[in-house]
Amino acid sequence: MRFDVLTLFPELIQSHMDFSIMKRAEESGVIDVVTHNPRDYTLDKHKKVDDTPYGGGAGMVLMPQPYVDCYESVNKLAGQSITLMMTPQGEPFTDKISNELAQYDQIIILCGHYEGFDERIREIIKPREISIGDFVLTGGELPALCVIDSIARKIEGTLGKIESAHDDSFSDGLLEYPQYTKPREYRGLKVPEVLLNGNHKLIDEFRLEQKIIRTKAKRPDLYEKYKTKETY
Length: 232
Ligand SMILES: C[S@@+](CC[C@H](N)C(=O)[O-])C[C@H]1O[C@@H](n2cnc3c(N)ncnc32)[C@H](O)[C@@H]1O
Known about the structure:
36% of the residues lie in helices and 17% in strands. With 232 residues, it is of the alpha/beta class. The strands form 3 sheets. Strands 2-1-6-5-7 form a 5-stranded parallel sheet, with helices on both faces. The chain has a two-stranded antiparallel ribbon with strand order 3-4. The protein has 2 domains: 2-152, Alpha/beta knot (3-Layer(aba) Sandwich), CATH 3.40.1280.10; 167-227, tRNA(m1g37)methyltransferase, domain 2 (Trp Operon Repressor, Chain A, Orthogonal Bundle). The protein has helices spanning 10-17, 20-27, 64-73, 95-101, 119-125, 141-152, 163-166, 200-218, 220-227, and strands at residues 2-6, 32-36, 50-51, 61-62, 81-92, 106-110, 128-131, 185-186, 189-190. The chain has 9 helices and 9 strands. Strand 8 and strand 9 form a beta hairpin. The structure holds S-adenosylmethionine (SAM). The site of S-adenosylmethionine has 20 residues, from strand 5.
């Protein structure tokens, strides 16, 4: 899976790729994350990428020419390719969208900054618009990394065992069951006995029951969907 990220701050993207599971996934060739800087596509000597908004108002708006030229320079892979725009105005990102996007061969991601994109960038590129929540960040790099990281976990070879993603929260519409590791007792709190007896049928039953209990308590909205067999 190849990710092409259009960003004014490529180091922000690269810094996340330099550690842990993402680093391993890139080194082993499971994913490839390439950055492209719209600033390299400006036509003026000051490398200006933003300007004041027509009609007045605070902040600076990203100019269309550097973004569109940068986008058009990205090689679209012959297979399936999709373009995303990170914006608080987009559809809320979920595990379901992550699964859907994991089927593509290439994902091109536009990261905004300052006051965001000149509207004509949307009109020309026609990206799928994605938000990571109803709040506003200073730039699209953190949202892009959330999307990349979440999708990369779905691709075989990223996690040590692909099975380890199967039980994660949201995979079946429920939150994950409680997890325990050594020691068996800590500050008087004991690991539930059922997890220690090696009876996998009982363990599975216990875990499903716990998933339901905690989803009901923490995310009643998810539980309602689960009950009606609606997929998340
Ligand atoms: C300060 S924001 C611009 C917000 C824009 N003025 C608005 O109100 O819709 C700058 C950039 O950060 C990114 N961004 C901020 N919050 C985001 C969110 N919740 N989801 C996805 N991207 C976000 C987008 O790329 C956006 O262009």
